[in-house]
Design brief:
Two copies of one chain form a homodimer. The first copy, chain A, has 353 residues and is an alpha/beta fold. The first copy, chain A, is built from eleven helices and twelve strands. Strand 7 of chain A pairs antiparallel with strand 7 of chain B. The structure holds 3-isopropylmalic acid (2 copies). The site of one 3-isopropylmalic acid has 3 residues of chain B, from loops. Chains A, B: Belongs to the isocitrate and isopropylmalate dehydrogenases family.
Chain lengths: 353, 353
């Protein structure tokens, strides 16, 4: 068997993005050595820093530069001195769109040793995945303003859903459910949102018909958010539009006590482009550069990257090492109530690995 | 002083709407007797039943019929045999829009005796109000489909925000905050939604400048939903667009264990039209007609109606009676873990009153 080699583009981005990507690389390198493959890293300095120096978050041909890699490992994008919609629509969102990373997969899991904000919930109660449509829907630059700066001012924004985009995200959700507990929940709002959400419901029904053996449920987003708190044990795979998935994939980790450690996989399931893996957390300007950021989200995102690259055993080993360290009360960063810094936390994961 | 008389239009609607409105009327009548005013009730049969008999949820001139009342007391709208977007856009939403009930005020409160799904939270930790824009924003019939029924099918939906609509909901939120703990939180998504939400942020800033002495915060809706679970004690008044307010005003009550008892006031703050008061819960087809529905949401909504009608003392007395019964472990309906039916629950509130 040939030695397996994976070429990874890293984009540390802003703030603690640097610290956690470095930490993640260290863990992934150790896994690579252990499981006999190698990772070649190429770093790109795309960030708010770069924007302030050059006026661009990434170069004109940025997307083409990363297209040839096997995967992208992203830290965090955003800094207080650059408006969010500038930095995100200048880097994160074009990466998702132009590489057609249409499936955003975000696991929600209560780990042993992590404090859950809900009363009486155990690890077996919270273990689901939010599958978020990642390139169309409510996120769009379509729209604008009229009568700007006057009392008559009005702004509009168009949400666009295509059958192409909706059907393929349903496929991802149902396929994933088949490898899990065979249940898919759809997040809808067809009672209040008249055009796009009834359409979403139809495509969910069509997908249900294509996938015998998978049980389904559908809830309006308002009550679904409530159920995340009241009945997190009801969920296996939750499929949602771009905006609803965004909300649910922060709410889910909050409920599981893992808002600081949640990972996000931006996938092109057909593997025509490199998929991108990132922590859900942001650049955390308040603690950036202090060396105290929790690297767990980046490590978990790294494990998802290994899994996507076909390194299933290594991926499992990394997740298990992370779970072991989380379960040990002594090895925790400040955000989880511990006293460790990033380096100590990485050392603990490496030891467990 | 003249005898005060308030004319109320009741719309029980569907399912348990009938049971809870009747229960609420009984409690409000008792309060009226005690505090020396009278309530004149006129009932309208607008509902899914009516739709199935006549093809219309309400008559053509429905809105004009209720315009002359002092307030509207609504049960629940929706039934499985009628598509939600038909029943709701045929009754609930036109009432909100055509009467210009632009402020949807939804209190979130953890009552003594109510089981909170969060660990270690006490009544003083959860006491805030969601102020939701109720007539514009993401809820619209603007949009449609192209290539219907083909692989190229696409649907779109336009969210519309006006300065008029945004500024006036901000006013309601800041005014309310001044009568409470002087803090307003804005729900935004200006990093992902490019046109309407940056506009929302600007209007929030403008409102902040007009209201010295009120502290403010703003969060993107994804992390805000997470904070509802992790830090419900951060909030006093939360101002949100139509869709975000819809989500937050189900999530809030879920967090406070009060999803079945949450009320909703649809206000025209200028009092040019009758404001409308309703429970947040739906028509509950599974328990409709059994006489076991929890009347607390309708009673709480009734108290908000009394408050709006200027019967402040009576409103307080009703809320207190409700709080007392909730605190008594014996007097609870099944949804709160008790064994009482609607009648027993009403009797307990009447006794406390
Ligand atoms: C029934 C539905 C249209 C309605 C809404 O979304 O406004 C409900 O959820 C509410 O919050 O009153
Ligand atoms: C930063 C923001 C644009 C982004 C999103 O809304 O997609 C983030 O919240 C996420 O979930 O990855």
């Amino acid at each position: 068997m040939n030695h397996r080699r994976h070429r990874i583009a890293t984009i540390p981005g802003d703030g603690i993005g640097h610290e956690v990507i470095e930490a993640g690389q260290e863990v992934l390198e150790a896994a690579a050595r252990k499981f006999g493959f190698s990772l070649n890293w190429t770093e790109f300095d795309w960030s708010c820093d770069r924007f302030q120096n050059t006026g661009q978050m990434m170069p004109e041909d940025g997307i083409d530069l990363v297209r040839e890699y096997d995967a992208i490992y992203l830290g965090a994008v955003g800094w207080p001195t650059v408006p969010d919609h500038v930095s995100l629509w200048g880097l994160l969102i074009p990466l998702r769109r132009e590489l057609d990373l249409y499936a955003n997969v975000r696991p929600v899991k209560l780990f042993e040793g992590v404090k859950c904000p809900l009363a009486d919930r155990k690890p077996e109660d919270i273990d689901f995945v939010v599958v978020r449509e990642n390139v169309e829907g409510e996120y769009s630059k379509i729209g604008g303003r009229l009568y700007e700066g006057t009392p008559q001012e009005a702004a509009n924004q168009v949400a666009m859903f295509t059958r192409h985009g909706t059907d393929r995200i349903m496929e991802v959700a149902f396929d994933l459910a088949k490898r899990r507990r065979k249940h898919v929940t759809s997040a809808t709002k067809s009672n209040g949102i008249v055009h796009t959400m009834p359409f979403w419901d139809e495509r969910f029904k069509a997908a249900t018909a294509r996938h015998a053996g998978v049980e389904t449920a559908a809830y309006h987003i308002d009550i679904l958010a409530a159920h995340f708190v009241l009945h997190p044990d009801w969920f296996d795979v939750v499929v949602a539009s771009n905006l609803f998935g965004d909300i649910l994939s922060d709410l889910g980790p909050a409920v599981a006590g893992s808002i600081g450690i949640a990972p996000s996989a931006n996938l092109n399931p057909a593997r025509k482009t490199p998929s991108m893996f990132e922590p859900v957390h942001g650049s955390a300007p308040d603690i950036a550069g202090k060396g105290i950021a929790n690297p767990a989200a980046a490590i978990w995102a790294g494990a998802m990257m290994l899994e996507h690259l076909g390194e299933t055993q290594a991926a499992e080993a990394v997740i298990n090492a992370m779970a072991t360290t989380l379960a040990q009360n002594e090895t925790r960063t400040a955000d989880l109530g511990g006293t460790e810094d990033t380096r100590q936390s990485v050392a603990a994961v490496l030891a467990a690995l």
